[in-house]
Amino acid sequence: MPVQRIESNPRMSAAVVHADLVFLAGQVPDDRSLDAAGQSREVLAKIDRLLAAAGSSRENLLSAQIWLKDIDADFAAMNEVWSDWLPAGCAPARATVQARLASPEVLVEIMVIAARA
């Protein structure tokens, strides 16, 4: 089975499709001046776009990994945006942890795996 790479560069691909699975790289916000809720909305919009490009959608999420710069300060805001974004009955397996992210301005990074529609 061929492997499809989306928005690929020499270092990484934003998404990789193999068989009926879509693997997204961790997505971070472009506008790093936003608060955790704003960054979460921006990241989830990127995820929507990449899933669509791969032939999937948020309704097909299997797994999600979420990293927060400060889980105490930002978990509630991120989780509210996540809950509003996620369709009813489509909750994936999920882990959320605090981590030192690649840039000090990044408050949220999200990576998902989905089935193709």
TrEMBL record:
PROSITE patterns: UPF0076. Gene3D superfamilies: RutC-like. It comes from the Bacteria. InterPro entries: RidA_CS, RutC-like_sf, YjgF/YER057c/UK114, YoaB-like. It holds the Pfam family Ribonuc_L-PSP. Belongs to the RutC family. PANTHER family: PTHR47328, RUTC FAMILY PROTEIN YOAB. This is RidA family protein. It comes from Stutzerimonas kunmingensis.
